[in-house]
């Protein structure tokens, strides 16, 4: 394999306390490391499992092995990490390089051979230790924007090889130029009343704090009922980058007493959805703002957290004003602090009463069933705290083949998927195989859940509440040709087609040239199916056939003939 030189500005230095040698990892890119994303950053339904290193908003930068080891895994996918490579190293670590444009020549040939063998773009290979040994600094591929990436960058991870837990590269010596402290934009104080072993929010106060690091005087003391929780909306930036980044640690202090510490040093992928339990999920859905909770919800089982015995909840027993300090630290140890004062109100607190089966909690799933629809929670915990929950079915002009089902609200976080079943009505038996459960949100956008039929009921798994109904998908996917273009990165001609589907989503796709299957690449986010024409291919008249099928078996074929 070809060797390349790399700049050592982003050198990884594993601490001696970890029992590994110094200079184990080098920066995998030949540029100064500027981050677009930090470890454990809060993302949609998951914690970010690595760091995102910027590539000057372009693709094609050479990516090198960060340390000696062997290539243990290679995967090509239209979503997720896209083109991704895994290298296992001595000492129990694995590095991950994701969203690559393509691999080096040797690995490209291996990947394409597997695609051709499977006749499928989606492919994954695992290798024995002596198959593909790699040296530090050796070229492994080129940076790109494949899979679920929202822009060109390199997603880089360090994992514990045994547990597969992602680890924070910053804790393993990775450093960047960052002198900018975090900014605490808002502080939210929530009043809680205890109910059913949980906590019901009855009031919220938002404090706009300003942009100064240590501006800590607020004109008004916040009154609470007697038990409260504090949450903060924080942003961080680093030198030479406009990206908004995650933070490393938040402390809630009362004098010298630490009431709560928020930090995530590692986590299991089975736990990553608990990201919705460390934030005010309703504020995320309704206002698109992230408030990190400085208290532990009763249904939050994330092993990475370090709550005190008080679990962050504040209980005041007198009528005095009490000072609380919030200290935020970013990955480069820059610190900001704010203070807030709380006081117990003299107003009487009414006893909280909720109707049976009208709430959902970390330890209670409501009854949600009638003759037209039902939800099976399977007895497992679904959410983290306590929320109002309603379930009803009704007639609606929007729903032709079932009742319109309103199940809870999309602002309720759902951890464990539930099974939703809706009874089919007024649908020709010949079309039942085309039936899908449609979910529509408050903006009118729709998506589909592809389920199974059983005795006149359509069932599907869902990980969010909201409004549902049954529709049919009889429309085949659409194939649009972009013709022949010129790829400046690969310096090869390529064929590009855009694939779209109206409802159930694309399931299978393939490209044939003169009747022979070719390893065309599909990008799910753009819908583009691309085939780079190999260099040296003689220019003759050829037939190109694109075959696409959606999740309900609707199929479309496009055949074109031209010279290339």
Mean pLDDT: 90
- Gross geometry: flat
pLDDT below 50 for ≥5 consecutive residues: which ranges?
Answer: 1-22
Question: Count of helical segments?
Answer: 2
How much helicity do the residues have?
A: under 10%
Count of domain modules: 4
Q: Kindly estimate the percentage of residues that lie in beta strands according to DSSP.
A: 35-45%
Sheet with the most strands?
11 strands, antiparallel
Distance from N terminus to C terminus (CA atoms, Å) equals 31 Å
Please identify the structural class as seen in this structure: mainly beta
Cα-atom radius of gyration: 27 Å
Number of strands: 42
What does this structure look like?
Strands 1, 4, 5, 6, 7, 8, 9, 10, 11, 12 and 13 form an eleven-stranded antiparallel beta sheet that branches. Strands 14, 15, 17, 20 and 21 form a five-stranded antiparallel beta sheet that branches. The chain is 4% helix and 42% strand. The protein contains two helices and 42 strands. Residues 1-22 have low confidence and may be disordered. The protein is mainly beta. It starts with 34 loop residues before the first strand and ends with a strand. Strand 37 (506-513) and strand 38 (516-518) form a beta hairpin. The chain has four domains: 16-172, Glucose Permease (Domain IIA) (Distorted Sandwich), CATH 2.70.70.10; 183-344, no CATH class; 359-472, Chondroitinase Ac, Chain A, domain 3, CATH 2.60.220.30; 478-563, Immunoglobulin-like (Sandwich), CATH 2.60.40. The longest helix has 14 residues, at 105-118.
């Amino acid at each position: 394999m070809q060797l390349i030189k790399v700049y050592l500005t982003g050198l990884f230095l594993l601490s001696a306390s970890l029992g590994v040698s110094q200079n184990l990892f080098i920066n995998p890119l030949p540029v100064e490391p500027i981050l677009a994303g930090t470890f454990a950053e809060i993302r949609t339904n998951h914690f970010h499992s690595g760091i995102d290193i910027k590539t000057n908003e372009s693709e094609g930068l050479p990516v090198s092995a960060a340390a000696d080891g062997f290539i243990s895994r290679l995967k090509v996918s239209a979503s997720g990490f896209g083109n991704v490579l895994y290298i296992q190293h001595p000492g129990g670590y694995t590095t991950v390089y994701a969203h690559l444009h393509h691999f080096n020549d040797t690995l490209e040939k291996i990947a394409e051979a597997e695609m051709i063998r499977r006749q499928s773009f989606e492919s994954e290979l695992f290798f024995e230790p002596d198959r593909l040994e790699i040296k530090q600094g050796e070229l492994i591929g080129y940076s790109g924007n494949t899979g679920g990436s929202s822009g060109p960058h390199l997603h880089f991870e360090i994992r514990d090889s045994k547990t597969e837990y992602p680890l924070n590269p910053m804790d393993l010596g990775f450093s960047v130029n960052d002198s900018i402290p975090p900014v605490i934009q808002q502080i939210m104080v929530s009043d809680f009343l205890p109910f059913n072993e949980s906590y019901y929010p009855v009031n919220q106060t938002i404090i706009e704090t300003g942009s100064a690091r240590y501006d800590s005087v607020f004109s008004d003391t916040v009154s609470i009922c007697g038990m409260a929780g504090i949450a903060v909306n924080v942003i961080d930036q680093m030198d030479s980058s406009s990206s908004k980044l995650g933070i490393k640690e938040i402390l809630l202090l009362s004098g010298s007493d630490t009431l709560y510490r928020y930090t995530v040093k590692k986590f299991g992928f089975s736990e990553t959805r608990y990201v919705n339990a460390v934030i005010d999920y309703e504020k995320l859905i309704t206002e698109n703002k992230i408030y990190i909770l400085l208290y532990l919800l009763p249904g939050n089982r994330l092993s990475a957290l370090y709550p005190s015995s008080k679990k962050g909840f504040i209980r005041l027993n007198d009528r005095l004003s009490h000072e609380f300090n919030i200290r935020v630290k970013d990955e480069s140890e820059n610190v900001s602090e704010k203070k807030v004062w709380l006081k117990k109100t003299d107003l009487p607190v009414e006893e909280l009463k909720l109707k049976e089966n009208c709430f959902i909690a970390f330890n209670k799933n409501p009854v949600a069933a009638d003759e037209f629809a039902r939800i099976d929670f399977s007895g497992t915990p679904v959410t983290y705290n306590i929320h109002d929950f309603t379930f009803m079915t009704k007639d609606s002009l929007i729903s032709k083949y079932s009742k319109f089902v309103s199940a809870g609200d999309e602002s309720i976080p759902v951890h464990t998927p539930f099974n939703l079943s809706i009874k089919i009505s007024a649908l020709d038996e010949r079309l039942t195989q085309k039936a899908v459960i449609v979910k529509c949100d408050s903006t009118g956008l729709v998506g589909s859940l592809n389920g199974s039929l059983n005795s006149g009921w359509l069932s599907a798994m869902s990980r969010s509440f909201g409004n549902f109904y049954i529709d049919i998908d009889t429309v085949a996917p659409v194939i649009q040709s972009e013709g022949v273009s010129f790829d400046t990165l690969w310096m090869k001609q390529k064929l590009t087609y855009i694939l779209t589907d109206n409802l159930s989503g694309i399931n299978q796709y393939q490209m044939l040239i003169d009747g022979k299957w070719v390893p065309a690449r599909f990008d799910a986010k753009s819908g583009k199916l691309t085939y780079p024409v190999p260099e040296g291919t003689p220019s003759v008249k050829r037939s190109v056939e694109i075959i696409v099928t959606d999740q309900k078996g609707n199929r479309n074929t496009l055949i074109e003939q031209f010279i290339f």
